[in-house]
Amino acid sequence: MIELGEMRHGESADEPAPAPPRRPPGPTARVALLGVLVLLVVTAAAGPARRPEPIRLPAPQGAAFVVLPDRVVVADGPGAIGRGGRVVAAYRLPGGDPAWRFALTDGDHVLGLTAVAGGLLVTSSPAGDGDSVSAMLDPATGTLRWRHPGYPVPTASGGLLLENPRPPGAGTVRAVDPGSGAVRWTLPVPGQEVGYRRDDHGVTQLVLVTPQGRVTVYDADSGTVAHTGRVAPAAGRAAYRYAQVVADLLLVEDARGSVTGYGLDRLDERWSLPVGSRAGLWFADCAGMVCLRNQVGGAQALDPATGRPAWTDERWLGMGPVGDRLIAAERGVGEELELSALDPPTGRVLARLGRWRVSGNDLPSGSLLGLRTLTGNRTLVGALDVAAGQVRIRGILPGAWSECADTGTQLVCLRPTGGMAIWPVGR
Fold first, then answer.
1. 190 — phi, psi (to 5°)?
2. pLDDT of 34 higher than 50
């Protein structure tokens, strides 16, 4: 069974609208009425209306996929099982007809598929060790436009950075034109990994910190130096345990075992927090707040201006920013977690979203999807609107499904054991 659709305001499933009084039908009307009754009887005898049948596509177990406006692209299949190469295959929507196939280098495996600047970016890596590679394909034909080493990082203006993390002193970041693949500039990474300052659309600045405390901030579009400065050096001037960009702050650990927050615009010291030698701690951006997390769960949110604790809650197993809200998870049933929408400055629960597994293949422009296993071997699919604190049910699908994407008129879902299906749904 697939259950879809919404009732319009004023509609009722229980009471029909009252009909105006009617006079008895004449002879001609009685003949017409008899014909309608016969048609209804024949239709009823044919059985209930059949549920929509999905369009099925081949896909290996654990395949990566992305949904574009007029096609779905599946990586690592079909036909990759038992063969040295890997295949990226595209199928047209809504019918699922094959569109094109693109073969990766033998031994490569796909890390991700991303729609960028009107193209399809396929990121792969050799099995075992080796640099990742980004290849831009024409989504209509599968033709290779360009290929460069590096892992893709989108910029806020629509550009693309390719990061090659290597041992200190050997890494690089290069900016490429997404359309042509032309290299705009290249930046060596002399110290630890590069930090990124982001807004809602992508990276705006790159931040490099040497173990000696030398900081250089670069513009993500031009590669030019925005400003430089100094912070406390790493312990022993070897490497920082913490050196990251969070909520418009640069966080670094000094020799005293304290993490200090510096404002990125002037590299002015804002606050310092003792962390000692505690293992398993990390800092994360919580929609403008600085969250201090640990491996056993729970979270503490710090005021980015002062570093003082704003709130603490031990029940959250994980959380992440969605717009200007937080989505937080506490223990549920198996892989399905109880999700809530939080107010970042206070940690207050704004809405309970229910028990879901969050799908990793939501469309970038759409809302998150949640999946829940129902009795009778069925899967409930809901669109999670964190900003509104609401869930819109998109369908109840027969069978078990591990990932789904919502186009607005179709649900494209992957089975845990392999294989995909396209289900028609309403907006």
1. -80, -25
2. no
